[in-house]
Specification:
With 197 residues, the protein is α+β, with helices and mostly antiparallel strands. 18% of the residues lie in helices and 35% in strands. The chain contains four helices and 14 strands. The strands form four sheets. It has a six-stranded antiparallel beta sheet. A hairpin with a 2-residue loop joins strand 4 and strand 5. The longest helix has 15 residues.
Amino acid sequence: MTVPCKQIFVPNYQQIANNVYDYIVQKTNILDSSDADTETLFWNWLTMEDVLINVPLLAKWVETTGATPRNMAILCVRETLLGQPVTESSSLHVDVDKSIRVLWPIRNCKGSSTHFYDVPREYLEYRETARGVGWLYVTQPGPFKFLGKGDYDLGPFVFDPNVAHGIHVEPDAGIPRLTLTIGFDADSDKSKTIDAW
């Protein structure tokens, strides 16, 4: 199996990340600590059109990809996820959306990464959050063959969500860890293969 992720070079990725963070603070309630149900707020859909209007540098970058964006979400990693401390093994999963996506570090990502593993399909079980976001949970503890990692210190990367992956959080990086994920139109080659990037 080939490495299921690839770093992409975006010279101004940190400036774009800062602009996305400003959008999160000013236009969403993702960081509202008064929300009692933080467990289900890991995956936060964004109104893509609004993001692209309010973060023109991101819109400009998306345009350079030649692919049509389909959706965007902010992944907000706190101390726990669905009642468990966030560890690589507790977060190991396969996404339901099968299209190649971008993961973009926004805040508190220093030293963090997403690790990929070869997990047999019979070890996957469908689960869903209270907000209706589905994923395939890895039911066995492993060990599983390590396939590679996407390193947030190096900037954004594309990845194959059909491969089991888990969150590796650097404890001293700060909470919450925020990343932006971008999905693209299923007809685009960039949605089908990492090699198109």
